[in-house]
Each structure stands twice: as C-alpha cells, then as structure tokens.
Amino acid sequence: MNPRALLEKYFENNQVALDIVYRHSRNVADKALEIATKAGLPQEELDFIEEAALLHDIGVCRIYAPKLNCFGKAPYVWHGVIGREILDAEGLPRHAMVCERHIGVGLTAADIVAQRLRLPVREMSPVTTCERIVALADLFFSKKGGELDLEKSTQQVRCDLLRFGEEKVQIFESWLSAFGVGEPL
User: How many other C-beta atoms lie within 10 A of the C-beta of residue 172?
Assistant: First the structure.
C-alpha cells in the first residue's frame, strides 16, 4: 500500500491541500515512529504506524476549510469520520480506526453530546497502542500556514488541550508517561 498515492487519489487535483496534509502527516509520522521506536514496538507495528500516520488526515479532502484550500461540505470536526469511511471503503479497516480516533486525545460519546458536536454519538477515542501513538504525535503539529514544520513543546500541547478540560490533559500526561516521552523527545 502506498499512502502518498492514496492521498493523491482523494485530493485529486487539489495540489495545495495535498501538500499541506502530506507535510503535516509526514511530520506526524516521523514523530510517531520516534515514539514507537523508543517504546520498542516491532517493525510490523512501525510500518503500520507510518502508514496510518500518513493517512490520518485523508478525510480533510472532503471538509470545508478554505485556509487548507479545501471546499467540501463537511465541517472540520468531521475529517476523522470521513477518513474512516474512505479507508474502510479502501479495505483498510485498521487504518480507518486511526483516522476516526485521532482527534485530540479522542472524543468520547459524552464529549460529542456535551459539546453538541454534530457527529455520530459513539466512542472515538484511541484504543490500541498504535492509535494512541499516532494521536499523540499529531498533537505536536499543526496544519496552520507558517506552522507546518514547527513542533510544539509538551507545555504548548498541554495548553491547547486544557481548553477541552483537565481530563484531556491527564490523558495526554498518561500517554507521555506510558511511552516515555519527555522534553525533548
């Protein structure tokens, strides 16, 4: 499976958006591989993590985000669900779950209801080690213009998560501890 070719298929002629998503995803993949290698995961899992990290934002192709040069109909928060649908249709169910479960430190059904997110009400939090590693790595990188290649510090990530509640910061802290991630990684 070639993640870049799959991204090209879904971003079709939108080279600007493809470049943004691929650069972001490459940074996430490199960080995820660093974390997974330090955690001692076997090569088979490293290969999966790299593919999943490169594809985790494939659903961005169908969202409305002019700053990313995307003009689909769905709101940004849907990109994980859309990514799952795309990768399920491609016969990649394990990769699909990474897409759906990578938003922040995960979205619970209670989060979806409490925040009145117009998403399916179901658990969308990382379950497997690989899912957690990709979600963790994603927290360190933005898709914002001018920030694509800037890695956030753990303190910046904590501040970003705090607006969603202390429990989200605690999940992040537990992942840092579980994977032996500190400053600097």
Answer: 22
